[in-house]
Specification:
80 residues; mainly alpha; two-stranded antiparallel sheet; 3 helices; globular
Length: 80
């Protein structure tokens, strides 16, 4: 059986390569803590907090009990 391909659209509001990487990590892997993202993406916590804050300000990710996830309003909305 051939592997299924998943296509995830990154909203146009996400310009930074680091922000795109974080958004895609959350969109494909589900919710994660800053520590989990740090280990998976080899980014510093300082960088991740800045990226996550910027994504949250745009309504693209949300933090729930210390875990970040793609905002339900940004899922399936395609590029914006």
């Amino acid at each position: 059986m051939p592997a299924q391909s998943t296509h995830i659209e990154v909203p146009r509001a996400v310009q930074s390569p680091r922000a795109k990487l974080v958004y895609l990590a959350l969109a494909t892997g589900g919710e994660a803590t800053v520590e989990e993202l740090q280990a998976a993406l080899a980014m510093t916590k300082l960088t991740l907090y800045g990226v996550l804050r910027a994504l949250a300000e745009r309504g693209l990710v949300e933090e729930v009990e210390g875990r970040y996830e793609v905002s339900s309003c940004s899922v399936g909305s395609g590029p914006s």
